[in-house]
Structures are given as structure tokens and as C-alpha cells.
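Quick check before the chapter quiz. The format below is the same one you will see on the exam, so make sure you can read both the input and the output lines.
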Amino acid sequence: MTQAIFTLSAFGDEIADDLETQLDVLAVEGIAALELRAAWGQNILDLDQAQLARAATLLRARGFQVSAIGSPIGKSPLDAPRAFELERLERAIAATDVLGTRSIRVFSFYVDAHAACRDEVLARMELLAERAARAGVILLHENEKDIYGDTPERCRDILATVSSPALRMAFDPANFVQVGVAPLARAWPLLAEDTIHVHIKDALFATGEVRPAGAGDGEIGGLLAALAARGYRGFLTLEPHLAIAGPAGGFSGVEGMHTAVCALRALLADLPS
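Here is the expected output.
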């Protein structure tokens, strides 16, 4: 059996807008990877080439790697033209080239009626995956409430139908809890084979409130054990959302991020050696 290697990463914009401050705090926490969603108060897809180059220089100087581009691609309604997300994907691909990652987080579109929207969602996901494959990047589909891929069954539908090595799963246990799904019991058996990226946050079934890892119903300790058993070698990306949680992202602050890091490290320490 391959030994698991967990590499901790975090959404730095949950700490502060300023990229250098993000890196300062993560360095103190012993984390040397960043899921880059925003810097200097701007979304990753809105950074120009000079800003991307500045970010890359800062990351290299501090010894950081980028776990993924935390893009909002797919967080749009189906009445937007297909070209809207394809154009945003081009910007994300350009960012990967500068920042030294081949992974881009994506979503599967806001929908009102899942069955009626299925064909259009899958057609759009296929177009995105085809472009990603040509560019040599991997799209990481994150499950989230209100999008097509909110449940494990619909995530499985996307992955199986598109059937591309350029589209894989970013498994978010808290987001499953928020749609009433037990992450380990119901989602993991369907999605384990395609999960190559994991977001760490927890939540409560009763209220949907986001909590530190292990303090909710996200079965994160069990998920970590399941990942270890599979010999997972990838990122555990902290996305704590402990102060603010919304559709555009979240915020935790310095203390919130510290709380989230400590909670995750405690669960990792409990894993069998």
C-alpha cells in the first residue's frame, strides 16, 4: 500500500486581502502552499499580467507553491452565454502558466431545476474539460449547494458523462453537509476514485453553520482515515469560513485560520501511524 502524503494548503484570502500578509500568517502556521483565490482584494481572474508576475515572485521568494487556482468558473447561471466561462477559463489557464500549478477549481453552474438543466450543464462541462485537456491543466470540480453538482450522485453524473482525465473532484465535506449529505457514508463511495483534491471545512446538519474540522457533521476524521487508506498524495486545503461564509467565498481572519489549522492538525495526529 502506498503511504499517504498530506500537504497542507489554505485559501489565503480568508486571512487578509494583502498577499504578503497571507503568506506571513501561513508561514507562521507551517503551511507552504496557497490556494490562490484572491490577492490585494481582487479575484485571481481579475489580476493582470503584472500582478500575476508580482504574485509569482513573492511566492517563489517565500518558498510557497500554489495548490490550485481557486477560480469562480462555473459559479454562473445557465442564461449566461457559454463563451463567458470559456473566456474565464482562458484567464485561469494563463494564471497557471505564471504561478506554476496545473490545477483549476471549478463549479457546475447555478440551476433552478436539476433534471431540466442537466444536458446544458454537461455540455458546458464537456467544453471546459476539452479546453483544459488541450492546455494540459486539470479542472477540480467542487461540490457546492445551489449548483448542479451539489450531491454526490450529480457529481458522479458529471464526472462519468464528461469522462475526461482533465476533470476530477475537489471533495468538500462541509458543502455536502449543507445539502443534507453524509460525506463519508454517502459521498465518498461514489467519488473516491476521482478525488484528487480535498477542501477542509466542517458544518452542522442542523443549521448549516460552518465549524472547524472535527466540530461538525462532516466526518472529517473518517475522511482523513479513508484518504490515508487509499494512499492519498495531495493537498488538504483549509477553507475555514469561520467568520463569513457566502457564495463568493469566506473569511476567517488570522485567529480563525489558526483555529482551523490546529483543528486539522489534531485530527491528523489521531490517524494511525
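If your answer matched, good. The chain has nine helices and 14 strands.
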